[in-house]
Specification:
By secondary structure, the protein is α+β, with helices and mostly antiparallel strands. The protein has a domain of 123 residues: 2-Layer Sandwich (Heat Shock Protein 90). 22% of the residues lie in helices and 24% in strands. It is built from three helices and six strands, in the order ββααββαββ. A six-stranded antiparallel sheet has the order 1-2-3-4-6-5, with helices on one face. α1 packs antiparallel against α2 and α2 runs antiparallel to α3. The protein is globular, with a radius of gyration of 15 Å. The two termini are 30 Å apart. Keywords: Kinase, Serine/threonine-protein kinase, Transferase. This is Histidine kinase/HSP90-like ATPase domain-containing protein. One of its GO terms (molecular function) is protein serine/threonine kinase activity.
């Protein structure tokens, strides 16, 4: 992880209906969390993939590569729900979008995979197994880090001059385009 982005731990689990936590909220130590545009903790279900897409689409409205960002969050959340303990009963996935030093940083934290780490699979012609390959192609940089038993997969996207994130709570003035699945 680069030093530009704050460590995020201890997100509050919420239901899908009231999922977003806008920028400007405080971190666990009570201080303002610089650079975080929003974060959401979702149930580890397939429905959460669509909710995460809408969450990111709303926060990054106006970003030139918005479709790439939305595709990457979709792949990362789907991977977390499919391949980690997040997809088990009472599992959760946390999505954080931050902006600093001319980049958006997307992070998806899962509940861990019994020691298994994310990896790009070799192309085998299968219908599945391409999620991290897609992330690697669309993001400027990507990687992962351990957070206790959890794994945080991150991806970064350059923000060009003249692009700016929507102020907290504003977005495009309408609901998410992506459906719940």
């Amino acid at each position: 992880m680069t030093g530009d982005f704050p460590e995020r731990r201890g997100a509050v689990a919420v239901g899908v209906e009231d999922a977003s936590r806008p920028a400007g909220r405080t971190g666990r130590r009570g201080g303002a969390v610089g650079g975080v545009l929003g974060e959401v903790t979702l149930p580890g279900t397939r429905r959460s993939v669509g909710v995460a897409r809408g969450f990111v689409r709303e926060l990054a409205a106006g970003f030139e590569d918005l479709d790439d960002l939305v595709t990457v969050v979709s792949e990362m959340v789907a991977n977390a729900v499919t391949h980690t303990a997040s997809g088990r009963r009472d599992g959760h996935v946390r999505v954080v979008l931050a902006e600093a030093a001319g980049r958006y940083r997307l992070e998806v934290a899962d509940d861990g995979a019994d020691g298994a780490l994310p990896r790009v699979r070799e192309e085998a012609g299968a219908e599945t197994g391409r999620g991290l390959r897609i992330v690697a192609v669309l993001a400027e940089r990507w990687g992962f880090r351990r957070d206790g038993t959890r794994t945080v997969v991150w991806a970064e996207f350059p923000v060009r001059s003249g692009e700016a994130p929507a102020p907290a709570g504003e977005g495009r003035g309408r609901g998410p385009v992506s459906g719940p699945g």
